[in-house]
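Students often ask what a holo structure prediction actually looks like on paper. The answer is less mysterious than it sounds. You provide the chain, you provide the ligand, and the output is a string of discrete structure tokens encoding the 3D arrangement of the protein together with flavin-adenine dinucleotide.
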Amino acid sequence: MPAPLTLHAEVVVVGSGPGGATVARELARNGRRVLLLERGIDHRPASYYGTYLGALIYADRRSLLFTQEGLNIIRPLMVGGATSMYCGCAAPPPPWLADRYGINLSEEVSETVEELEIAPLPPELRGEASTRIAQAAQARGYNFQPQLKFMRPAQGRSFAERCGARCMLGCRCGAKWNAAEWVDEAVAVGADLRTRARVDRVLIEDGRAVGVAGRLAGQPFTAQAETVVLAAGGIGTPRILQASGLREAGLGMAMDTTVMVYGFVRERGIGNEPPMTWSWENADVGYMLSTLIDPWLLYPIITALKGPRYPLTWPRWNHILGVMIKLRDQVSGGVFPDGRISKPLTADDRERLHLAEAVCREILVEAGARPDTIFMTPLRGTHPSATVRLGAMLDSNLQTAVRGLYVCDASAFPEALGRPTVLTIIGLGKRLARHLQQGTGR
Ligand SMILES: Cc1cc2nc3c(=O)[nH]c(=O)nc-3n(C[C@H](O)[C@H](O)[C@H](O)COP(=O)(O)OP(=O)(O)OC[C@H]3O[C@@H](n4cnc5c(N)ncnc54)[C@H](O)[C@@H]3O)c2cc1C
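The corresponding structure tokens follow.
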């Protein structure tokens, strides 16, 4: 048996989504020897990237990952993590993160907003029907606003003419920021990126992290480092911690559980318009609404989960108005060592979801949808998070009880965010990199 490959670095970062990419880039720019380990590969050069086929290839279980309760989780596994398939929406961290947990990310977030030119899409790209929904909502007293976006029209090839900011399965023109770009930048300044590197556990000696072990292209390997940052996402990170002996990881989870409420109109609907161009947050009740419907090919699959008659509406896909509900759900269920994932809604969650659905119906009717055509899709989740919570398993510098072992991704959220996550994760990544850079993280 050949000896397992051993790699060496100052800092090992596991996972290349927004959390891992940010930490790796910041530290590499400051001259630290960074090893970035990603279990997926870089699908961006492939012809299928950004297509339906691509979504099947790079999402966990071909996009058919379900919780015990039947909630569908979309979990892209590739360089860039879930930003390879996200809608490009940006939201600042919720105020309670600073008020309740003392995590003030305003400096890191301002820096990111400026660097990535985060702004709403220009009015002509917000979509006619989407704008009609927003106006209907405003007329009913719900203050929909243009959604901030990680979109840089100037950088996209033929942005307005060809893509129109409509992509949902991966941006092919380069206008939508993707964490993979920061992976490229980290590599350009010396970070060592290894793809097909699946980390199984953290190596711990005398209460401190000394590296990680796993499989690289199917072969066993270890990587030694004095600092380990886990950024494998809300499902990946607790699994690694459980295998490393931190048993309470994964007990409880948030998801920002999502549903769409659809209604049909005679005119053109929002199907071919950019996703989520308008939104509104009801912070008191704990939900966010945005203009969105499922992509054409996914629509019959998703609606089939509701019942056999719903996919029959597929031919009228072009006449749908849709509002997405993101529920700021309570922490429940979890990611368990036997592989199960559970995310039940609590009674309080159900009550608030019911209130949000009623508001969506009101908006859709105001926007011209026939009341008898309105229905809500089954539950799904795109923000698995809060599985290794700040304030419980992590201190304010994101360090676990194991010295030198940090977590920097959506699993660190202390509660459900109830809004787009990526800007907050980038903020956490920059803050952690500064902490490690000051030498206090050693
Ligand atoms: C369809 C969709 C639309 C979305 N839209 C938006 C949006 O518009 N705005 C927004 O802010 N958020 C959006 N989100 C959510 C957002 O993309 C995620 O919350 C965010 O990317 C999470 O970042 P992360 O760093 O925690 O983990 P991830 O992005 O999940 O990255 C984790 C990485 O770790 C890798 N990994 C996992 N396990 C291992 C292991 N054992 N070893 C090595 N590597 C591993 C994975 O392959 C992955 O690349 C969306 C998500 C989806 C799925």
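Residues 5-42+78-116+177-250+385-437 form a domain with the FAD/NAD(P)-binding domain fold (CATH 3.50.50.60).
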